[in-house]
Amino acid sequence: MTRPTAAPVIDVRAATPTDWPEIGALTIEAYSREVLVGPGYLRSMGETAERAADPGVELLVATDPEGTIVGSVTATRAGSAWADVVGPGEGGFRMLAVRTGARGRGVGEALVRRCLEDARTERLDRVAILTQPAMVTAARLYARQGFRRLPWRDRVAPDGTELLALVVDLAPITVREATPDELPRAGELTLAGYLADGLVDPTASYASHLADARDRASAATLLVAIDEARTVVGTVTFCRPGSPYAEISNPGEAEFRMLAVDPAARGTGAGAALVHACLDRAGAAGDRAVVLSTLATMRAAARIYQRLGFTADPGRNWSPEPGVDLLAYRRDVLTAHAG
């Protein structure tokens, strides 16, 4: 009986300047073959030296066992001129291209996996990309790697092409609305998080307020972070402007409160995943910004907010009671545009 031949091993590495001309030619060939982009953008695909000079870009190539370049991709980071849909805390990639004769050999998959691995190594939270409805084969590849649609981040390119936004979360955390049976755990976890950081007196009335997840779920949206063991390890209260739990939001702004992560689960990405989920909900609802209030002593939380693009909004700092001074932060929901 004949055994199936193993697929050749595909290696992915950082491109060198000597690779740049071949990357440009390969990318142009791949995209012109199916007439996927306009002539102006097609020309820009050949400008590999310009992309490589951007500090927020890394060109990657896939090679076969003979060392022949069979595919390439442009990995991007927030702030790059090539980052299109990528926002704070995210990585991205674009111009994924595979040589005609190398299709079906796992080249595209190897390039995408490398982009995800590099983003994890940099401790980014997710990878966001744009694709086109016509790119059906690529869509299947992205789905296999865990990408999901975020329609509120869709774009329209300058030439009128519809661009579909996809993201994949890198932490092993799922965020969703809490079920009724999870509310006691969410309340206990919120209080435990605040107590662990010395942010509340366990005998104070606010302690019971923190523990009352059932009331928050009835007047706002209570989100929970679930780990791979299906345990609730974090929670946040997402508020619509003008709703009972909203404190500083204006019309067109969403707000979140009482972000808490189980002390044993800190460092897993649960807190950042909850913030991203709030941004996603705000974007889907058409809100232009997300705001929050935090204590100056909540330094770990502030680091997450700042890393994810929130900036201080001192004009909205406020004090709910003497001795409790809250700092306001704000972030525009959309922070990048297609280039």
- Counted up, domains total 2
Task: Please name the fourth-level CATH homologous superfamily of the largest domain.
Answer: Gcn5-related N-acetyltransferase (GNAT)
Instruction: Tell me the number of helical segments per DSSP (H or I, 4 or more residues long).
Output: 10
Helix content: 25-40%
Second-tier CATH architecture of the largest domain:
3-Layer(aba) Sandwich
Strand proportion: 25-35%
If you consult CATH, what is the topology of the largest domain?
Aminopeptidase
- Please identify the structural class as seen in this structure: alpha+beta
CATH level 1 class label of the largest domain: Alpha Beta
Low-confidence stretches: none
What are the secondary-structure elements, in order, as H or E? EHHHEEEHEHEEEEHHHEEEHEHEEE
Our Rg estimate from Cα atoms comes to 23 Å
- Major sheet summary line: 8 strands, mixed
Give the terminus-to-terminus CA distance.
Answer: 53 Å
Inertia-based shape: elongated
Number of strands: 16
Topology overview:
Elements: E1 11-14, H1 20-33, H2 39-45, H3 48-52, E2 57-63, E3 69-77, E4 90-98, H4 107-121, E5 126-131, H5 136-144, E6 148-149, E7 155-156, E8 162-169, E9 174-177, H6 183-196, H7 205-211, H8 213-219, E10 221-226, E11 232-239, E12 253-261, H9 270-284, E13 289-295, H10 299-307, E14 311-312, E15 318-321, E16 324-332
Parallel strand pairs: 4-5, 12-13
Antiparallel strand pairs: 1-2, 2-3, 3-4, 5-8, 6-8, 7-8, 9-10, 10-11, 11-12, 13-16, 14-16, 15-16
